[in-house]
Amino acid sequence: MKPVALLMCAGLFLSGSLQAAELSVAVAANFTAPMQKIAKAFEKETGHTLALSFGSTGKFYAQIKNGAPFEVLFAADDETPARLEREGHGVGGTRFTYAVGKLVLWSKQPGLVDDKGDVLRRGSFERIALADPKLAPYGAAAMDTLNKLGLTETLRSKFVQGENIGQTYQFVATQNAPLGFVALSQVFADGRVTEGSAWMVPETLHDPIRQDALILAKGKDNPAALELMRYLKGESAKSIIRSYGYGL
């Protein structure tokens, strides 16, 4: 091969290498399954690599404030990304709602949870799981629901709190708690709740669970960050998000 051709090939190789980047992404626990599927498709299409961390939005906020190297945040609410943007930890103009979450009261046991949530008033269970409302927006939505139903004080002694909605789901899935408030996305596939029994909590009982994404200050120069945001707004990602029961 001639020297000029060799240089052109080398240039193309280097160009491709420079375009591919690794991106550190903090993801709310409720969005674990769809984000894993989205990441796989995104990496295949773009060549970028996503390093995903899953946890509570409240803890991510504290970590980002303390200098954690996250470059993009997918929160379980809209307030935390807005606050980070106001405080100078996010890139202005990049925040958008990527999903609207839905709360469900779920049990792994068939027939335990009725489709109107009357099981809460009967109180015929020893424990009920919910995420820490100070850290997890789904936990805050669960508390809103119980407050509006007038059941908070009646059931408080039965509360088992998870650090995030992922841990809360595990409490119910392992039946350490017979029922609990979880994200619909954790128990939903192919248009239905996959097992057990559930009550879809009416959205009138809690504030909307708008979940916003934001490019963080540490990701402002990473080309993969903008590419990921663009991808989340496309039909391929939206189809995956809808398949887990989220609104858009």
Kindly state the number of beta strands: 12
Quaternary form: single chain
Radius of gyration: 21 Å
Indicate the proportion of strand residues. Answer: 15-25%
In whole angstroms, the N-to-C terminal distance is 53 Å
Helix content: 25-40%
- The global form is globular
Strand order of the largest sheet: 2-1-3-12-4
| Content-based structural category | alpha/beta
Low-confidence stretches: 1-18
Order of helices and strands: HEHEHEHEEHEHHEHEEEEEHH
**What characterizes the major β-sheet?**
5 strands, mixed
Average of the residue pLDDT scores = 92
Work out the helix count.
Answer: 10
Question: Keywords, please?
Answer:
248 residues, alpha/beta, five-stranded mixed sheet, globular
Structure, explained:
With 248 residues, the protein is an alpha/beta fold. 40% of the residues lie in helices and 23% in strands. It has ten helices and twelve strands. It has a five-stranded mixed sheet, sandwiched between helices. A five-stranded mixed sheet has the order 7-6-8-5-11. The chain has a two-stranded antiparallel sheet with strand order 9-10. α2 packs antiparallel against α10 (235-243). The radius of gyration is 21 Å and the shape is globular. It starts with a helix and ends in a 5-residue tail after the last helix.
Fold topology:
Elements: H1 3-19, E1 22-28, H2 32-46, E2 49-55, H3 57-65, E3 72-74, H4 79-86, E4 96-101, E5 103-107, H5 119-122, E6 128-131, H6 137-149, H7 152-155, E7 159-162, H8 165-173, E8 179-183, E9 188-189, E10 192-193, E11 197-200, E12 209-215, H9 223-232, H10 235-243
Parallel strand pairs: 1-2, 1-3, 6-7, 6-8
Antiparallel strand pairs: 3-12, 4-12, 5-8, 5-11, 9-10
Helix pairs in contact: 2-10
